[in-house]
UniProtKB/TrEMBL annotation:
<feature type="domain" description="Peptidase A1">
    <location>
        <begin position="144"/>
        <end position="481"/>
    </location>
</feature>
<dbReference type="InterPro" id="IPR032861">
    <property type="entry name" value="TAXi_N"/>
</dbReference>
<protein>
    <recommendedName>
        <fullName>Peptidase A1 domain-containing protein</fullName>
    </recommendedName>
</protein>
<dbReference type="InterPro" id="IPR021109">
    <property type="entry name" value="Peptidase_aspartic_dom_sf"/>
</dbReference>
<dbReference type="Pfam" id="PF14541">
    <property type="entry name" value="TAXi_C"/>
</dbReference>
<comment type="similarity">
    <text>Belongs to the peptidase A1 family.</text>
</comment>
<keyword id="KW-0732">Signal</keyword>
<dbReference type="InterPro" id="IPR001461">
    <property type="entry name" value="Aspartic_peptidase_A1"/>
</dbReference>
<keyword id="KW-0645">Protease</keyword>
<keyword id="KW-1015">Disulfide bond</keyword>
<dbReference type="Pfam" id="PF14543">
    <property type="entry name" value="TAXi_N"/>
</dbReference>
<keyword id="KW-0378">Hydrolase</keyword>
<feature type="active site">
    <location>
        <position position="367"/>
    </location>
</feature>
<feature type="signal peptide">
    <location>
        <begin position="1"/>
        <end position="25"/>
    </location>
</feature>
<dbReference type="GO" id="GO:0004190">
    <property type="term" value="F:aspartic-type endopeptidase activity"/>
</dbReference>
<dbReference type="InterPro" id="IPR033121">
    <property type="entry name" value="PEPTIDASE_A1"/>
</dbReference>
<dbReference type="InterPro" id="IPR032799">
    <property type="entry name" value="TAXi_C"/>
</dbReference>
């Protein structure tokens, strides 16, 4: 139960008076309240800065996961936990990241408002496999990557993880011309060097199943094309080969795009793993082995790690038995790729916002590729007003807006930062109570308005950090403090 405004105000006034006395030399100096009050969270200001030393444990020392045959690290491609072979190319600026993020969000909203066929939903859990995942700047946004091996013998590939797309692909030799392959630190995948590689022929069932990703035929080989929300695209030959997820988990005959011409913001990564709802995704192709379920935990910062797991999760049993708060997965006939749930309410500082349920009626896309969460305009305005009101007593200096982020602060000189908590509640009562790293990003409130009232929202990856997010054919589960 949250404290009353009077009690909270008295606590904040006392904290500010003590800090002021410290600044005058009467008491030891302090930088904001260090004692948490109900509905607030206090963290070190240094926690918002990326660490320079990898603090992740050795994967071999990680506790075993029920039904999972392999656990692989997920790391930031530019951070200290990244493997030595990862890209050393410079990350895009914050401004470029947010511009690309806005293009992706607008693209998702356009697709969801369009028309399409019913998704091919996936089945129940069977076995499991885990893949290492990394946090990287990919396709122009702040996203996450895994490392897997492709071909025989296997060649390591650094691949972006994307729940908002289906078809997986890697950049391949030969390039269509000198400018058709973007820069990546790893060598291009050479299909001629893999004894298990085969191009998918035209006229076969695999080629016919490409649907919206089909791009005709050339020399009897099936072509593919994928266009992304930020304007990037890849095209090439639809192919099959062995995808090795771990020393004990390999997907024989894995279907993927062998990309010979790419444009856009892919620089640095070797390709992409699609985790969407259609059968061409990695989840769909491995449903017979892993039951069509998967989970992931996105790390909070580049100096920590997370994971991607196909199939079973820690603890055994269903999502509820494993400590997950679950919400229903909704059908998405107009955009069958996306995982959509129903947001029903938001609280700030322990107080529920006065936002009618109709404001969220359009549903919410759970997306690893979108950075900051998008809300219908009226819901965002209520969140922003409550957050600003909760922060105001601490006197943090405002900072200029940062692109799409309009509520920013300058925390320079503060040892700690105290924020009102933010919690997102979904149907069936599943609630995500966000940590400070899920509330702020780039020094700003990590939410933005998008679309229209009653329209679609998007749960971005900032708000998913440190939660294990488990998705199967009927539900989405959230388990806090999982990485």
């Amino acid at each position: 139960m949250s404290s009353s405004p009077v009690a909270r105000g008295a606590h904040l006034l006392l904290s500010l008076l003590l800090c002021g006395a410290g600044a005058l030399g009467f008491l030891p100096p302090c930088y904001g309240a260090t004692e948490e009050t109900p509905g607030y969270v206090t963290v070190s200001a240094a926690s918002f800065k990326p660490g320079s030393i990898c603090s992740a444990p050795d994967p071999a020392a990680a506790p075993p996961r029920n039904g999972t045959s392999a656990v692989l690290r997920l790391t930031h491609r530019h951070g200290p936990c990244a493997p030595s072979r990862a890209s050393s190319l410079a990350a895009p600026s914050v401004a470029d990241t947010l511009r690309a993020d806005q293009r992706r969000a607008e693209y998702i909203l356009r697709r969801v408002s369009g028309s399409g066929a019913e998704p091919q939903l996936l089945g129940s859990s069977k076995a499991s496999a885990s893949v290492p995942a990394s946090w990287g700047y990919d396709i122009g946004t702040l996203n996450y990557v895994v490392t897997a091996s492709l071909g025989t013998p296997g060649v390591a590939q650094t691949l972006q993880v994307d729940t908002g797309s289906d078809l997986s692909w890697v950049q391949c030799k030969p390039c269509a011309d000198g400018s058709s392959c973007y820069s990546q630190k790893d060598p291009l995948f050479d299909p001629s060097q893999s004894s298990s590689y085969a191009a998918v022929p035209c006229g076969g069932s695999a080629c016919a199943a490409l649907g919206m990703y089909a791009s005709g035929c050339s020399a009897s080989q099936c072509g593919y094309v994928v266009s992304y929300g930020d304007g990037s695209n890849t095209t090439g030959v639809y192919s099959s080969d062995t995808l090795t997820l771990s020393p004990t988990d390999a997907v024989q005959g894995f279907l993927f795009g062998c990309g010979h011409a790419q444009t856009g913001l892919f620089t640095g990564i070797d390709g992409l793993i699609g985790l969407g709802r259609l059968q061409v995704s990695l989840v769909g192709q491995t449903a017979a082995a892993y039951g069509g379920s998967f989970s992931y935990c996105l790390p909070t910062k580049p100096s920590t790690t997370g994971y991607l797991a196909l199939g079973g999760s820690g603890g055994g049993g269903g999502a509820t038995a494993q400590g997950f708060a679950t919400t229903q997965l909704l059908p998405s006939p107009s955009a069958p790729t996306y995982y959509i749930v129903m947001l029903t309410g938001i609280s700030v500082g322990g107080q529920q916002l006065s936002v009618p349920p109709s404001e969220f009626a359009g549903g919410t896309v759970v997306d690893t590729g979108t950075v900051v969460t998008r809300l219908p305009p009226s819901a965002y305005a209520a969140l922003r007003a409550a957050f600003r009101s909760g922060v105001a007593p601490y006197g943090y200096p405002p900072a200029p807006p940062n692109g799409i982020l309009d509520t920013c602060y300058n925390f320079a000189g503060y040892g700690t930062v105290t924020l009102p908590t933010v919690a997102l509640t979904f149907s069936s009562g599943a609630t995500l109570t966000l940590g400070a790293d899920g509330i702020l990003s780039f020094g700003c409130l990590a939410f933005a308005p998008s679309g229209s009232d009653g329209g679609m929202a998007i749960l971005g990856n900032v708000q998913q950090r440190s939660f294990e997010v488990r998705i199967d054919g009927t539900s989405v589960g959230f388990k806090p403090s999982s990485c």
